[in-house]
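Q: I'm building a small set of examples for a reading group on sequence design. Run inverse folding on the following structure and report the sequence directly after it, with nothing in between.
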């Protein structure tokens, strides 16, 4: 018996197969992009037609690599980037879709806040979300700008749900990803149609909500022909990438903490119930575990920046890594180990700390480049240090408002493969870092959900606590911790000055939430 997870991330999609003991059997991955829509500023459309074909390719390749028969896959689940939504007509045909950081609804967010000054706070207290990446402004944009589409809209769900819709034919949703729509209650773990009604939007388009691990059907005949998966394979509710990733790390109890180092970095702390931040700076989402929510910080583009740096500056390093038979990131880390702590004073200016109520970033830049000491290795190390510093600052903010303390952080995702990066995170936070054996934690969490649906596990929590294995730990150097605290303080002051340049329209923000 095997389980498959389809993981539809921001920068790539993968199909991953696991056995019942949580061992990864095979993986197929393809990078993809989400394109802007002609004439629509700040748009990031989700190309559901081409994306589905990429997913089909990954499914077939993963099965082939595993060397198993398709009917040996007992259940399949899905996870995805959050916030992205898909709209359907009454016959379950896709009409419109956007990826996570689509910011086309800037005008709509601004107008909602102007017309209803207290509404965002009111909705945040219910949902844990602001309007920045929520579905309400996007639906309002569609109503205004794509009226012919809006009139046909009969259903809405999230991208992970869409994957399962393509596999089963059922239009459904689950709390952990639907919660990021902002039209959802942390307390009841159900959609809140009254929010849509307040903005004169359709309030009858929200599908039935099932908890993660619930069977919603089998592979449809149509999907079976396309993917070669068997019609007896169960299709099981999955969840948002961060929440399922947490489950795949064993982070299922209140008080536990993780950093997920992917395209974006997320810093999460599990909390009981539906508590929200009085300053509205921290996002709060439903976990895939009933009764548990997650307070979350987000660092923009940490993984994407590494890809950009690799592809823009490191052609020589790619060739050298290929000669040595190692990954280019490993090669760059080997060079970066020779760079002293602090990277010769280089301060990367990319993502700010989490400011959910007023979310925008400075213009991308490197500060303190030097003709004498700057090298690609130093710039690479500075990016690793900066990702860790922003994560530390976000975690400290979460610890303050949740009154939570932990001396251990679980670290996963592609970034956790970096030995230097993991040690830097430990030194920057002053905490022990635990690295799981399976780095595809999000996909493993999806496999736990699939296994619950197949009857192999009693619950996602039970599977996580019993099957997550640990590869290594990193202990902090407290002298380094003190030095990084000073660097973090300096970076905060410099970043504030860089934001002033954006405010004075002298530079352009790397990303700005709709409505700002």
């Amino acid at each position: 018996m095997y389980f498959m997870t389809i993981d539809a991330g921001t920068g790539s999609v993968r199909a991953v197969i696991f056995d019942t003991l949580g061992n990864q059997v095979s993986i197929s991955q393809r990078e993809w992009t989400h394109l802007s829509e002609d004439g629509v500023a700040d748009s990031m459309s989700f190309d559901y037609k081409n994306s589905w074909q990429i997913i089909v390719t990954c499914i077939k390749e993963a099965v082939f690599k595993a060397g198993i028969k398709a009917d040996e896959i007992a259940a399949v689940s899905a996870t995805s980037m959050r916030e992205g939504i898909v709209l359907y007509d009454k016959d379950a045909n896709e009409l419109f879709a956007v990826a996570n950081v689509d910011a086309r609804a800037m005008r709509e967010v601004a107008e909602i806040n102007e017309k209803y000054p207290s509404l965002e706070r009111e909705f945040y207290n219910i949902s844990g979300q602001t309007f920045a990446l929520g579905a309400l402004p996007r639906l309002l944009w569609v109503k205004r700008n794509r009226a012919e589409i809006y009139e046909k809209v009969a259903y809405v769900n999230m991208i992970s749900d869409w994957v399962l819709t393509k596999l089963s034919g059922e239009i459904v949703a689950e709390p952990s990803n639907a919660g990021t729509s902002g039209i959802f209650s942390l307390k009841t773990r159900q959609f809140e149609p009254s929010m849509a009604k307040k903005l004169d939007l359709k309030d009858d388009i929200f599908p039935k909500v099932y908890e993660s691990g619930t069977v919603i059907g089998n592979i449809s005949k149509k999907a079976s022909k396309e993917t070669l998966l068997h019609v007896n394979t169960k299709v099981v509710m999955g969840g948002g990438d961060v929440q399922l990733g947490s489950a795949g790390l064993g982070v299922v109890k209140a008080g536990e903490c993780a950093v997920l180092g992917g395209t974006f970095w997320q810093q999460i702390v599990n909390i009981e119930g539906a508590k929200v931040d009085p300053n509205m700076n921290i996002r709060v989402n439903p976990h895939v575990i009933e009764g548990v929510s997650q307070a979350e910080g987000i660092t923009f583009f940490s993984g994407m920046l590494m890809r950009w740096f690799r592809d823009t500056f490191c052609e020589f390093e790619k060739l050298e890594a290929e000669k040595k038979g190692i990954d280019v990131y490993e090669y760059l880390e080997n060079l970066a180990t020779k760079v002293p702590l602090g990277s010769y004073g280089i301060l990367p200016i990319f993502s700010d700390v989490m400011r959910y109520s007023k979310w925008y970033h400075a213009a991308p830049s490197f500060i303190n480049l030097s003709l004498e000491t700057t090298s690609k290795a130093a710039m690479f190390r500075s990016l690793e240090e900066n990702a860790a510093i922003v994560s530390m600052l976000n975690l400290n903010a979460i610890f303050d408002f949740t009154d939570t303390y932990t001396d251990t952080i679980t670290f996963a995702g592609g970034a956790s493969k970096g030995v230097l990066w993991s040690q830097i995170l430990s030194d920057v936070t002053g905490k022990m870092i635990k690295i799981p054996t399976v780095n595809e934690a999000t996909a493993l969490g999806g496999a736990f959900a699939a296994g619950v649906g197949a009857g192999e596990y009693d619950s996602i929590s039970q599977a996580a606590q019993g099957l997550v294995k640990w590869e290594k730990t990193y202990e902090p150097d407290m002298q380094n911790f003190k030095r990084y605290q000073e660097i973090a303080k300096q970076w905060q002051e410099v970043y504030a000055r860089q934001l002033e340049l954006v405010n004075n329209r002298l530079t352009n923000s790397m990303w700005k939430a709709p409505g700002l």
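Residues 132 and 513 are 5 Å apart (CA to CA).
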